């Protein structure tokens, strides 16, 4: 999601010291990278939904990421990318700052994020959406994430 509540397909690149958002087609960096030391916390859902919010307090604009595994594992289910992302970021954050990265695991179907300096609620739908539904929809200050696994 962009600060204008628009869906944008992006790639995420994590280097030794920064997080880059890349254009999904050209793989060119968008704007400037975010230093890993600027990450305030990571929020994840306790369900199998691959939703991550990387809090960047200095930018007043969190990274809201719906991870999509490019391949399936041996069981036929999509791979779990949240653990990989969390492990890499926590490791690099600790190496750079000497501190542990704050990880918040949301037990319900809602979390929060800041987009464009405004706090917004981020929730999972109560029931599966139809296949043509976009991954993110919004109404006022509430953003709903429709993961691919929940779409019929």
From TrEMBL:
This is TH1 domain-containing protein. Residues 1-149 form the TH1 domain. GO terms for cellular component: myosin complex. PROSITE patterns: TH1 (PS51757). GO terms for molecular function: cytoskeletal motor activity. It holds the Pfam family Myosin_TH1. It comes from Mythimna separata (Oriental armyworm).
């Amino acid at each position: 999601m962009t600060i204008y509540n628009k869906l944008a397909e992006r790639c995420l690149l994590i280097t030794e010291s920064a997080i880059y958002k890349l254009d999904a087609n050209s793989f060119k960096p968008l704007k400037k990278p975010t230093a890993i030391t600027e990450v305030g916390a990571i929020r994840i859902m306790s369900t199998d939904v691959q939703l991550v919010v990387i809090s960047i307090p200095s930018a007043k604009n969190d990274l809201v990421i719906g991870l999509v595994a490019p391949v399936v594992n041996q069981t036929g289910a999509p791979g779990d990318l949240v653990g990989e992302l969390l492990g890499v970021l926590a490791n690099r954050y600790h190496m750079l700052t000497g501190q542990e990265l704050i990880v918040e695991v949301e037990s319900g179907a809602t979390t929060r994020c800041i987009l464009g300096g405004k706090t917004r609620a981020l929730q999972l739908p109560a029931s599966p959406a139809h296949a043509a539904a976009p991954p993110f929809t919004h109404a006022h200050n509430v953003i709903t994430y429709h993961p691919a696994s929940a779409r019929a």
